[in-house]
Amino acid sequence: MFRRTILLGGMIIVASVPGRAPAQSGTPASAAAAAPGPAGAPPKRVPISKAVFGDAGIIVNARDDGFMEVAAAGPTKTILIQLRTMAARAWVDSTSRMLRARPRRSNTPRTFRSDVAEHGSSTTMALTRKVTAGESEYSLFFSDEPLTGFTIPIEKSEADVFVAIVRKAVATSAKMLEKVDTSAAGKDSAAKDSTAPAPKKKPAAKRTAPPPAPKP
Fold first, then answer.
1. Alpha carbons 35 and 42: distance in angstroms, whole number
2. Among 154, 114, 151, CA closest to 136
3. 13-24 per-residue burial string, b: 16 or more CB within 10 A, e: under 16
4. Using one digit for the tens of pLDDT, what is the confidence trace for 130-161?
5. What is the CA radius of gyration of the chain?
6. In this structure, what DSSP letter does residue 36 have?
7. Which residues on adjacent β-strands are paired with residue 60?
8. d(CA 51, CA 160)
9. Paired strand residues for 46
10. Which of 24, 80, 116, 182 has its CA 20 to 30 A from that of 148?
């Protein structure tokens, strides 16, 4: 319990560092980096989970700018990965299929891996399943450089829980972004209405005086 407290306590600082996340693949960097709030304002974060998986503490947050983030504290380093909700949702779908798959029984080890990378950087998160003679071993992998990173052996139940946590973060981030977009659209509409020119009034019709009555 003491080790878990140290892991999670040290990660809170990393996970709360403000900053703009880079765009994910297929998304223009300018559009992905645009903050929904005032210029320079950090994104709003909603904590989804603070837990220990294997020997690592992991914090997952949702954000209101179309991103979610995972901070993982391993034996020697802490890695923060920021993912576009679209990319994280695709990872959840592919990882769920991998965990449900029933590969043929064989003495030859087979390894299945589902990974996702933060676009514009070398930061990567992956879940691996190694199957040998019908028995499966699971692990999480985090890396922020091509040749460095750490692997966390976990149980099947932990793999299911982690995927569920990321799925919840994706759903929460999507709802938060939708509210921000709706609010911004309402403000733009109100601003346009307030600046619209007042309709011009038609000039009043001039009345001509009746001709003078003839003299008797």
1. 8
2. 154
3. eebeeeebbbbb
4. 999 989 999 999 999 878 899 999 999 999 99
5. 29
6. S
7. 49, 70
8. 14
9. 62
10. 24
